[in-house]
Each structure stands twice: as C-alpha cells, then as structure tokens.
Write a structure and sequence with these properties.
2 domains; globular; 324 residues; Cytochrome Bc1 Complex, Chain D, domain 2
Length: 324
C-alpha cells in the first residue's frame, strides 16, 4: 500500500493530544468538555478539594502530579515529551477522553493485546511502555501505586464491573468516503498549524513543552493505542480542536487521523526483528499503518525508525518526587 503524505499533516495530533495537558486550568471548564456521543454521562469525579489529608491523600496528590508531569515525577520511566493528560483530558477527569475513573472500575480485565487478564497496574505499565515510549515501572512501584490511588479517588461512587458511560472515546461512524490524505492536510492547516507548527513537532514556551510531538523520537511509539486510525479519529472528533470538540466532521476526523498515523515514530517494543512479521503479529488490521509504504519508505523499518524505550540515562536512577 503506497501513500502520499505531507509533512504539514503531522501537526494535527499535537493539536489533538498536545495542548490539553498544559492548558487544563487555564481554560474554563465548558471550553474543555466535549459532548460525548451515546449514553448520557451523569458521573462527576470528585474535585481536588475533596482529596483528604493524611498519607492516603498524599498518595492521591502524588498520583495526580505524576499524571500531569510524568517527566518530572517519574523520569526514570518516561522516554518522550508527552504527558498522561495529553490524551486523558482534564487530568483524567473528562468523559469521552479516556477518563481514569471509568478505566479504574473496568479492571481487572482480559486484554487481547497481551493475551491475559490484566490488573489495573499492568494496564498502567502498558502506558509507560507504549504511549510514553519508556520503561514500565515494576508492579508495586510507588509510581504505579500513586497513579492507581489517584484513579481510585476519581472513581469514588462508580460501580465496578460495568462499562461506565463516558469511558474511552465515543464510537465514530465510518466515513462516507475513504479517508483522504490531502483533505487531512487541509484540516491540519486550518485547525492545528497555529498551535503545533507546520512540521507538527510540538512547541515549547519558556523551556516547557506546551504542544508535544505527534511523531518522531519524542512521541508515542508504534505500540501505542493512538496509532490505531480508528482510535485517533474517535479522539479527534470528540475532543479536538481543544475546546471545540465535535466541530470537525466525521470525515475530517478520519482523514486527519489517517495522516497522523502515517508518520515515522519510535519502534514497537514488540518488534520481532522483521517488519512484515511484526505487522502480521501485532498490527494485522486496516487501522494500522505499521509496515505500510509511505513516501517510498516502510513505516517501522529499523533503519529509519527511532528506537523504543528511550529513557534518558540520567533519569534511570532518579527517585520518585514525593508530594508535599
């Protein structure tokens, strides 16, 4: 499958994934909340003001700090410039943006991705390994305990074992036309370039990344869920541009997601040593571009693909910064 792409395209998911983590708390709540499709969402997670005092509350606060700034509070496990809150909007609170309260009550659960029943901590390990292009913290590590405690706090009052309304991303219908890359480039220019720049590599201000990269060595790797065109399109349609979720058409969301997922990014940690074999084993779906030819190059080719798990050497021995 040969595809023509444009470098300009790549900025979209920075619009999509990028601004949210930094701008939370800088925009009014109504400007951040999408209107998820499907069952009405009535659950509201508790606010920070409800975090109790004492050791438990300290762990909740540490979990939220790690969630908002993983490279600061868990640098030994983070290999890129992304934050958890880039995809899990409003620090994991927002319905229709993979909220952590809905994820917490859904585990333990079987995952076809690794072929066994996962605990919630195991699910969090996957986020570090794939989305953060880092190293999974050991089970029982303070980083995982803190993130689980924070998620538990957000889920207070939700029943377990039920698919909570607002979980994950709202299901998106198929596009009327096959996804088109040129159309996706136009959407990017119109809606995202002003935030994420013409190359889509993110932007910084005062030494702080405010719009993180969507591809390249500092983005999520080929094992991350956002490399699924379907998942990316659902997230985009429901939540982007930031504060304007639902304003892009279904077609536009599919178009731009296809462009975004046709870019070079770090290798899948499950790489077998052979791109075709890795695609067949882990990416055997029309929604993955791994192993496909784009601009004459094969996505995932190890000669042109950044490595996975690029945690800085200086961070590997860094202790977890405790909450105040």
């Amino acid at each position: 499958m040969k595809i023509r792409t444009s470098y300009a395209v790549a900025g979209l998911l920075a619009c999509v994934v990028g601004a949210s983590g930094w701008l939370v708390g800088r925009l009014p709540a109504f400007a951040l909340a999408a209107e998820p499709a499907g069952r009405p969402v009535t659950f509201q997670p508790p606010p920070d003001s409800a975090i109790p005092q004492g050791k438990f509350g300290d762990m909740v606060r540490l979990g939220e700090r790690i969630f908002r700034e993983p490279a600061t509070y868990a640098p030994q496990f983070v290999g890129n410039q992304l934050r958890c809150s880039n995809c899990h909007l409003q620090a994991g609170r927002q319905a229709g943006a993979a909220p952590m309260w809905a994820a917490y009550t859904a585990y333990p659960a079987y995952r076809s991705k690794n072929g066994h029943v996962n605990s919630f901590e195991e699910r969090l390990q996957g986020c570090f390994r794939y989305s953060m292009n880092g190293k999974p913290p050991p089970l029982g590590d303070t980083v995982l305990v803190a993130l689980e405690t924070y998620s538990y706090f957000l889920a207070k009052g939700l029943p377990t074992g039920e698919d909570a309304p607002g979980r994950s991303f709202p299901t998106l219908p198929k596009p009327q036309l096959p996804a088109d890359y040129a159309r996706g480039a136009q959407v990017y220019v119109q809606s995202c370039a002003s935030c994420h720049g013409p190359q889509g590599q993110g932007q910084s201000s005062g030494g702080k990344v405010v719009f993180p990269p969507l591809w390249g060595p500092q983005s999520f790797n080929w094992g991350a869920g956002m490399t699924s065109i379907k998942s990316a399109a659902e997230f985009i349609r429901a939540n982007m541009p930031l504060g304007l979720g639902g304003t892009l058409s279904v077609q536009q969301a599919w178009d731009v997601a296809t462009y975004m997922d046709s870019q070079v990014r770090p290798q899948d940690p499950r790489f077998t040593g052979d791109v075709e074999q890795t695609r067949k084993k882990f990416h055997n779906t029309p929604f993955s571009m791994y192993g496909q030819t784009v601009n004459g190059a094969v996505l995932g080719d190890p000669t042109a693909t950044p490595p996975d798990g690029t945690v800085p050497v200086a961070a590997t021995a860094a202790p977890v910064q405790q909450a105040d």
